[in-house]
Amino acid sequence: MFCPKCGKEDVELFKCLCKSCFIEEFRLISLPDKIEFTICVKCGSTLKRGKWKNPGLPEEEIIYNVVSDAITVDDLVENLDIGVEIITIRGSIFECIVHASGTVMGETIKQEYAVEVKKNKTICPDCSKYDSGYYEAVIQLRADERVPSKDEIETIDGIIIARIKKLSEKNMMAYITNRMVLKEGIDYYVGSYKVALNLVNSIKEVFGGVVKESPKIAGRNKSTGKDLYRIWISLRLAKFHKGDFIEYEGNLGQITGLNGKRIAFKELDSPHTSSVMWRDYDRIKIVAELEDTKNTTVTSKTPRSIQILHPETYQPIDIPIHEGISGIEIGEEVPIVEIEGNLYILKLIFNK
Ligand SMILES: [Zn+2]
Ligand SMILES: [Zn+2]
Fold first, then answer.
1. Please, which of 114, 252, 301, 332 could form a disulfide with 268 given CB 3.0 to 4.6 Å?
2. pLDDT for position 140
3. d(CA 222, CA 202)
4. Nearest ligand to the C-alpha of residue 2?
5. Are 232 and 252 found together in one domain?
6. Which ligand is nearest to the CA of 19?
């Protein structure tokens, strides 16, 4: 066999050429002369196979990705390495050189390819939704039988700002398009329902509360014919606060903490701690507030009872002893609360 290109005889042929002529003619990669990509001028996301992805990448990285995606590599190539160099930029046209190196039949080859990359600018659907004030859900912050306090609103605003900052790194729909101050609370208009749920859970983790969702039809998607829903999520904070006194299932207690799942309280006439799930919130009765606690003095003590002075009438009152208060000594000043005519010595002191 002989090579028709260089004339060498008695050689093995690859696609009708000897090995060195074959390698000389070989192209590591193939790519079009011109490539286009579409970018959102607002967030920098690029459109790839119908999806908007990767907001905020540096331009060199975008060009590199676009060029890499357009390249086809010959099956014979091993250890391919690609570098993209932007030579000149004219408006939205990037003239680039692709530096390719790879191993073919044991030989390392380096090649250069010229390519023109064109940038098409537009606004992605998420950004145009944001611009038009689009929202999928409204968080209605309320409180039961009262309005949310200034402190609660301030803390909740802070939670929302921090969560949005974190979530918006990955989710373009993580934004608040409107915050409405109403007589009964605050309404937050949220880009996506998923984000709204995430925000509600973060608030609930700190304040607890009862969550209710009500979807309302907000229109119809013209292309699919399906109804579009907007979801109102109401988060109702409890009527009570930490330190207040409640009755639940015949137990009296002082609230020690609220979280996303339950309300914890210390029982008033035993050393025990109990809790109630939020779904049973309606069965909780508030019997006194933290502001109703008073201080008084222990006047005597027996193995069965502790005697204190009623803070207003100064009458001596005997309180049955239990483990939670058994360590109290005569002469000590103790916090107490009066509920339905009975006095209870408190084991925990909260700031009023
Ligand atoms: Zn040859
Ligand atoms: Zn965008």
1. 252
2. 97
3. 35
4. 1
5. no
6. 1
Ion ligand 1: residues, Cβ under 5 Å: 3, 5-6, 18, 21
Give the residue ranges of the chain where pLDDT is below 70.
348-352
User: Residue by residue, what is the 3-state secondary structure of the chain?
Assistant: CECCCCCCECCCCECCECHHHHHHHCCCEECCCEEEEEEECCCCCEEECCEEECCCCCHHHHHHHHHHHHCEECCCEEEEEEEEEEEEEECCEEEEEEEEEEEECCEEEEEEEEEEEEEEEECCHHHHHHHCCCCCEEEEEEECCECCCHHHHHHHHHHHHHHHHHHCCCCCCCCEEEEEEECCEEEEEECCHHHHHHHHHHHHHHHCCEEEEEEEEEEECCCCCCEEEEEEEEEEECCCCCCCEEEECCEEEEEEEECCCEEEEEECCCCCEEEEEHHHHHHCEEEECHHHCEEEEEEEECCCEEEEECCCCCCEEEEECCHHHCCCCCCCEEEEEEECCEEEECCCCCCC
pLDDT at 133: 86
**Assigned domain for 198 exists:** yes
Q: How far is the CA of 127 from the centre of ligand 2 (A)?
A: 4
Distance 129 CA to ligand 2 centre (A): 9
Same-domain status, 193 and 118: no
Q: Are residues 211 and 296 in the same domain?
A: no
Domain residues for the domain of 48 are: 33-125
Predicted pLDDT at 348: 63
